[in-house]
Every structure is written in structure tokens, then in C-alpha cells.
Amino acid sequence: MIEILEELILSLADDDLLIGHRQAEWIGLGPILEEDIAFASIAQDETGHAQAYYQLLTDLGLPTPDEYAFKRSPAKFRSAHLVELPNFDYDYAIALMRHFFYDAAEQVRLEALRQSSYEPLAGLAERLLREEKYHWLHAHTWIRRLGHSTEEAHLRLRAAAEQLFPYAWMLFEELPNESAMVELGWIPPSSELRQRWLDKVLPLLEDIGIHLTTPSEELLLPMKGARHGLRSPYFDDLYAEMTEVSSSDPEAEW
Amino acid sequence: MASLDPRIRRAEPELWQLPERPLQPLEHWQTYEVFTLRTRGGHAQHVGSLHAPDDEMALVLAKEQFARRSPCVAIWVVPTSAILWTRPEDEDLFQPATDKSYREPQGYLHTRERLEKYRDRLKPIDP
């Protein structure tokens, strides 16, 4: 049973760890100082969330957060491909749209986890929601503000939304052994969470004139299996950079 | 191919030139003054200023600029342009022409002694 719990918690933790890393790549490059600080701070929060999730496993005698983050083989990661995507040409519309999709999903997941029958997870979700409230406020305020500003902003946001939507959709890929998790009352089915997520993001996007349609199976196919260990083509570079310091001295104490 | 990573390829300085005309709305952000309350019911303290495109974003951005490292239960933001202030050349408004140190806190330092002296004077003299 502990293996099933690990699958669930790693899927939550790995998403936070990698989105934290990708958002942190924006440090010093944000469009304006104030936003740079806010976005970097959100990235730091996400990394903290990952650490708190790994710690739940450490408490059960499994590896430590550092071991999970820095000493795991790629196939053992359970992240969705959305969070592995690089920042490409550093278009802030893409950064904001990923943040918007991701933090809406995180809110939905955390709201559901509050009711989890696995109490340590329910307690942690309650705590993380406090920070998540700000992440979501930051994300949707920007999207609405920019969505109602200029044509350029609208076009860029629309392109970002269309590009990222299939990836975001796959945040809710069915987890390995999901039926057991649902039966144990740990988490609702992914398809149900996806619907709650769609109910949250689609009206806000409609409001700024962005209409998205269900992604085709063909678009989703390359991302299938992410929760089972299939990494995106971008993972290796990300992981090499993320572990560069820790692997330079594996015995170091932090 | 040249890298797209802005940490490697820096923007061309000519892109930073401002146009030779007044800036239009949405081309620049205004500044806001930020105040925080450390405790509920406490008084708001000015903690600094920031750039934001509108009132709502000013609140959103102020939270991470000014409430990260010290206790905070609420934030106020005010457009800097909404604040009226006296001019530096009017600093003399605040300089008294005569000694008004009695109005300052140390002006009250010896009040008790003086009061006691006065009471002593009022005491009826024993026959």
C-alpha cells in the first residue's frame, strides 16, 4: 500500500518541484522588478510545497526530500509534461498562462485533498492552500488584466493558451493504481478533478475571448504515460541543471 | 542558432530607447505608496513604493514586495499621485520662531516636581 501512496504523493510533489524550477529560471528576467520578485517568490513557494510532500514519505521511512529531488532516476519521476516544458523564448504570456493553468489545477487538487482520508495529506493540503490562494490571485488577475488590454496581449495569451492546453489537460492523466486510491478515499478520480479544473479556467478564458476545445487524442498521445514514468524530451536537460550543484559534492551537508 | 535564453543573449540597448513623444496609457506604469498593518487594528505604516499597472495589481504585487519578511495582516496601496505634500522650500513651516520646547515631550519632564512645589505652597501653615 505504501507504494500506492508514494505514487500519489510523488505525482503532486514532482509537479511542484519542476514548476518551481522552471519559474525560478525567470529570476532576474521578469518584465519589471516588482513582478520579477513576485514570480520568483511563487516559484520558491512551489519548491517548498514539493519538499513538504516528500517529507510525508520520509516520515514513513522512505527517502529524504533531497534524495527524491536530486538522486532519483528520471523514470521514477511522476511529473506531468506541462511542468517540464522549458521557457523556450521567454515569452511572458507563456509563463503566465502556464502559471494560470497550473495553479488552478493545484487549487482544485488541494481543495480535494483537504477531504482526503489520509490525514497527513489532508493536513498538509490545508496548510498549502494558504499560499495557493495568493498564487491563484496573482495568476488570474494578470490573465484578466492583460486579456482586456491590447490586441497584442490578447493574441499572445491566446497562442499561449492554445499551445499549453493539451499539456495542462494531461495534469489530470489517470494515476497508476488510481482506482485503489479512490477506493481508499485518498483522492477523487482524476477525470472528476479535471472537470472541476475546466469549470474554473474556461469561464475566465471565455471572458477574455479565448475559446478552447477539447484536445484531440492525437495531441495528447505523446504525453500519455507521464504519471507512469515517461519523461518529456526536455526532462534530461532540466534535471542536469537542477542537480548540477548537488552532484558536484554528493556528501555535502546543506 | 543563437540562444534565445535572455541570460545568454541580452536585449539590444537601442530597444531600451524611449519614444520621442509623451508615453501613452499602457506604455508605462504608475507608482503606488504601500502601507502595511502589522497587527489587526494597528496603524498603517508606510513601507515603500512600487510600480503597478493598476490599483488591483498594485495590491497583488505589494504583497510579495513588502509582506515577505515582516509580520503583516493587511496592505493599503495609494497612487503616489493621490498624495499631497509640502514642498521642500516650505520646510520653514515647521520651524517655530520662538522657543516651543514646552510642547515637546521633554517640556513635561519636570511637571510633577512643579506640581508638588505648588501644592506645598498651598498647604495651610500650622498655627
Mean pLDDT of chain A equals 96
- Secondary structure: helix percent of chain B: 10-25%
What is the makeup of the main sheet of chain B? 3 strands, antiparallel
Instruction: Using a beta-carbon cutoff below 8 angstroms, give the protein chain pair with the largest interface and the number of residues from each chain.
Output: A-B, 21 and 19 residues
Structural class of chain B: alpha+beta
Topology:
The complex is a heterodimer of chains A (254) and B (127).
Chain A: H1 2-24, H2 33-58, H3 65-70, H4 81-84, H5 92-113, H6 119-147, H7 151-169, H8 178-183, H9 190-207, H10 217-220, H11 235-242, H12 244-248
Helix pairs in contact in A: 1-2, 2-6, 5-6, 5-7, 5-9
Chain B: E1 30-37, E2 45-52, H1 55-66, E3 74-79, H2 111-122
Antiparallel strand pairs in B: 1-2, 1-3
Short description:
The complex is a heterodimer of chains A (254) and B (127). Chain A is mainly α and 254 residues long. Helices cover 67% and strands 0% of the residues of chain A.
Structural summary, described in words:
The complex is a heterodimer of chains A (254) and B (127). Chain A is 67% helix and 0% strand. By secondary structure, chain A is mainly alpha-helical. In chain A, helix 1 (2-24) packs antiparallel against helix 2, helix 2 (33-58) packs antiparallel against helix 6 (119-147) and helix 5 runs antiparallel to helix 6. The longest helix of chain A is centred in the middle third of the chain and has 29 residues, at 119-147. The model of chain A has no long low-confidence stretch (mean pLDDT 96). Chain B is α+β, with helices and mostly antiparallel strands and 127 residues long. Helices cover 19% and strands 17% of the residues of chain B. A 3-stranded antiparallel β-sheet of chain B has the order 2-1-3, with helices on one face. In chain B, strand 1 and strand 2 (45-52) form a beta hairpin. The N and C termini of chain B lie far apart (111 Å). The model of chain B has no long low-confidence stretch (mean pLDDT 86). Chain A binds chain B through residues 28-29, 32-35, 37-38, 41-42, 88-90, 134, 137-138, 141-142, 145, 149-150, and chain B through 4-7, 26, 29, 50-54, 56-57, 60-61, 63-65, 68.
